[in-house]
Amino acid sequence: MKIHTNITIFGGTGDLTFRKLLPALYTMFNTGKLPENSRIVIIGRRDYDSGSYRALANDWVKKFSRLPYSAETFDAFSGQIDYFRMDLSNPKDYRRLDEYFSKDDIGSHIFYLAVAPRFFSVIADGLKTVEGACQGKVIIEKPFGENLEAAKKLNEELESHFGPEQIYRIDHYLGKEMVRNIQAIRFTNPIFTDIWNSRYIESVQISALEDVGVETRGGYYDASGALKDMVQNHLFQILSIVAMEQPEVFNSTHMHTAQVEVLKSLSPVGQAEIEDTLVLGQYEGYREEPLVSPDSNTETFAGLRLYIDNERWRGTPFYIRTGKKTGTRQMEVSIVFRRSMPEVEPNVLIIKIQPTEGVYLQFNIKRPGDTDDIIPTKMDFCQNCDLVHQLNTPEAYERLLTACINSERSWFSQWDQIEISWNYIEQLKQLFTKKGLKVYPYAPGTHGPKESNEFLARTGHQWME
Ligand code: BG6
């Protein structure tokens, strides 16, 4: 049989596959984004066959699919799913996999490693015996390792097997509609493009608050913390898109270069500045969460004040904050412009990323009536407030899988971005620990410790609420 694209998912019975990948593939099938004659091979240790796995997949797709579920479409879709049972560390099983693949004429391979990073090199090694595998693409998920050293080693191993251009590192924030929109808003509107610099912008805030706690992921999270879990990857990606110079062309190479330049220009922080750079918090009750150490000092909240040392941004602070159990789910980027005169409110542009997707602009008018008072007012555009748009906006994993099939690398993190961000964040954390700074407790349902407000107040600012 001729197969156009063969997508093999290692970790096929894990949460990511059930909640995200299968629903995304189903929708891609439904909307014609999955190339015809594709096949999805699910790799797992558990005792299923293709029939019983498809029945299981049916339940998850029904629950998590973006588009309305249809049994008929699911049947057609699931005809392309095969379950292949194997032990990831058994070389014989890779030979069986090779035999199974060799029965068909496969156009291209994509291997999705939806497994813990300790399996990445085991799988890469195993795939050496599978014909055509090393010409395939491989998708990996963060964490790319437990620390920078481990991540480097993993990266070298993967690159030596697949080659740097074949590795697609998922940062699912890059697949979010409004994250993709930041560059459109910045560069297609001269009212913003021309004043996107420190002369006109007083501060930038990137805020990602979550309602959920660590739930069942205590084991992973406790070794990671908010800085590594959210800041070093998702929020630094956003920071670099907000702050980058306009790429010559909007292709992967130019975008990537522009983003990396921002990360390289982050002002170095020394022992004397760390207190004004980083504030950390932990929600009360975190230490009682399953798989979390009872004396854990891991941060579930992080607030940062960063500066970018280049001509465009010198003097404008970039505030980043993220936290779990904050009583709200809200992710947005706020651009606070300098006031035209001290007594009026600033113009504020807020790019709302989730759950509301939209653009909010605050500006000043004269209070209506017989007065000259100046008051702030707003224009508030919501992109996903109606059902049609909700249904039309692809989910991040749909976009990312489609982008990988089409080799559009700008949708993925590149290794040098990861390395620079990781280095920077590790240095901050080391300075923080060396200085003996405290991880402040905060009550669940609040927006982090009160110290994070005092932290911003020190430079005359406050978090946008
Ligand atoms: C993941 C983090 O990468 O992103 C999680 O590991 C976090 O801790 C999640 O909850 C947030 O993603 P989203 O899409 O819900 O904002």
Account of the 3D structure:
There is one protein chain. The chain is an alpha/beta fold and 465 residues long. It folds into two domains: 2-141, Rossmann fold (3-Layer(aba) Sandwich), CATH 3.40.50; 174-405 and 412-457, 2-Layer Sandwich (Dihydrodipicolinate Reductase, domain 2). The protein has 15 helices and 15 strands. A nine-stranded mixed beta sheet has the order 14-13-12-11-7-10-9-8-15, with helices on both faces. Helix 10 crosses helix 14 (415-434) and helix 11 packs parallel to helix 14 (415-434). It is globular. The N and C termini lie far apart (57 Å). The mean pLDDT is 94. The chain binds 6-O-phosphono-beta-D-glucopyranose (BG6). 6-O-phosphono-beta-D-glucopyranose binds next to loops. 6-O-phosphono-beta-D-glucopyranose (BG6) binds next to loops.
